[in-house]
Amino acid sequence: MDHPPVSPRARAARASLTLPVVLTPVLRWVNTVRAKVRGVAQSLVEGRGPYARAFENLIVALVIFSIASIGVESIPGLPEWATRALYVAEIVVVAIFTFEYLLRLVAARNKFGFIFSYQGLVDLLAIAPFYVLGVDARWLRALRLLRVLKLQTHFLETVVEERTRELAEKNAALEKAQAQLKAELEVARALQLAILPASFPARSGCEAAARMIPATTMGGDFYDYIELPDGQVGLVIADVSGHGVPAAFFMAVARTNLHELALHHIDPGECLAQTNDALCAQNPLDLFVTVFYCVLDPKSGVLRYANGGHNPPYIRRAAGTVETLRGAGGLVLGAMPSGRYPTHTVQLVRGDRLVLFTDGVTEAFNPAEELYGAQRLADEVHVHGGGTPAALVERICQSVTNFAGTAPQSDDITLTVLTWGAP
To answer: Does residue 355 surpass a pLDDT of 80?
Structure first.
């Protein structure tokens, strides 16, 4: 069967469709080769490969040799063999410089930009006199000194780039370590706050509230409620010297010891004496803790207490007057063994409120470096002490915050308020 003749236009159309199919593998191969050649060039002249430093050292050595050959060729009566040797050496130098120039041209992303850049012109001046004027133009080789300046600039840029990269890596590692440390400290803070009692033991006619606000991630203050025999309740407020993690660890040790010993020594003074001896035996950092410990009989309202160097608490009487518990002072715990802590007794009447606090309250500073002071605290207790313990704790904390303003918190703040004979 005869086929109709194919017109020239149809043949041209078929050829235009076939040509891209044939050229596609070729173009792909060309692009691959070009990428590999450019990669090799960049590894040699841009400091990315293992031989880049050696190649730079070779160029510097050739520049020095080329400049030195100017003086050697100027020596009168130079032997013919020496002249020929220098001629061959000059050809080798120019060939290597030309090879380097081509490598930099291949590696450059902007070819024309490189050719007319300072570095490109310096590289061109290193070889152009040879090709234009011949080897006899040896005095023009002095222009190769510019290559030393260029390489020095390149060395400095490379060093700065390496140091910048190292600094960035170290900063990233430091930020990661700080983030991890912060996360761990936040967990430790949560655990520390979790070991403090959330509520006062259920006793008829008794109501209490407490709060601890660390100055740093972890604090050295603590409070505790201890259920004792015959329905009595022990109340503790304490302040460890120092801040941060060491104080937090010593706080945990002190709280654990006092809590355990209180179950075996009902008398507050004897309990503090035993706790002091225990802390002195396990205190490698020479820390100490101030402690106020009292035992309340919820049935009678009798409060027995002992003080180990802590701020004496306030009692707001039902009538509205505020007084300080006597028996202030005493030796701090953990500083010296065999201390003695006398026990005192006070009778509470219905509606009395006991306010225990650490010096983070009275020694809070404002931006003018003024102290909050004991008088402001006593005034707050007097004016706002008629409400619930939780309301008084909130009021005092807010008062301290308002007073401090923008000044940073200088110490842990801890408060405990107990009402006896509440309806």
So the answer is: yes
Check residues 241 and 65 and name the one with the higher pLDDT: 241
SS (H, E, C) 350-405: CCCEEEEECHHHHCCECCCCCECHHHHHHHHHHHHCCCCHHHHHHHHHHHHHHHHC
- Give the whole-angstrom CA distance, residue 115 versus residue 128: 13
CB hemisphere CA count around 146 (13 angstroms): 15
- Cα(112)–Cα(154) distance, rounded to whole angstroms? 20
Q: State the angle between helix axes of 244-262 and 268-280 in degrees (0 to 180), rounded to the nearest 10.
A: 130
* Structure-block tokens of residue 357: 């606090």
d(CA 148, CA 141): 12
Nearest to 385 by CA among 324, 323, 318: 318
pTM for this entry: 0.63
- Token pair recorded at residue 212: 């601890």
In a 3-state reduction of DSSP, which class is residue 45? helix
154 near 53, Cβ under 8 Å? Answer: no
Boundaries of every domain in the chain: 8-161, 200-420
Rounded to whole angstroms, the Cα distance separating 389 from 381 reads 11
CA distance 290 to 241: 8
Cα–Cα distance for residue pair 33/28, rounded to 1 Å: 9
User: Residue 338's pLDDT is what?
Assistant: 86
* CB hemisphere CA count around 119 (13 angstroms): 18
The residue type found at 104 is: R
Instruction: Assign 225 to helix, strand or coil.
Output: strand
CATH class of 200-420: alpha beta
